[in-house]
Give the backbone structure.
Amino acid sequence: MDKPIKSLSYRKNFVLDTKQPHIRWNVEFSKDKHLDDIKANYFFFVNYRNPERILRNIENQFKNFSFGFPFERLPNDLSGKVAGTMNEYVFANYSASQGLVKFNFGWTNLPVIRDDKLSNYYQKNWDIRKYVLSLVE
């Protein structure tokens, strides 16, 4: 198993500590042929203030932009305290017919990263939950 990633190059001359407040997200299409319009939306964030507020905002944006198409929060959430800090983390997964193109995270004032590793299909035998936990250990 690879060593957990402790920091991520985000922008030129900028390194983001994965234990500091930030948001990671990704969207992927279903691999099932008959479900090709369904997307999995992954959100992972570290924050020191009320992480449920970010989830409520994400769900409100789904409601506002779904145009009547359903979305569903899937039951494989993870949450807890970030090791060695006062920060909390949340990983949430949604199934929806719309991607994240229309989502706005600007109101959070947190660094936002699209993370390709937040995917069930990143590599063969990839475990998204282990990846999320490696970010906060």
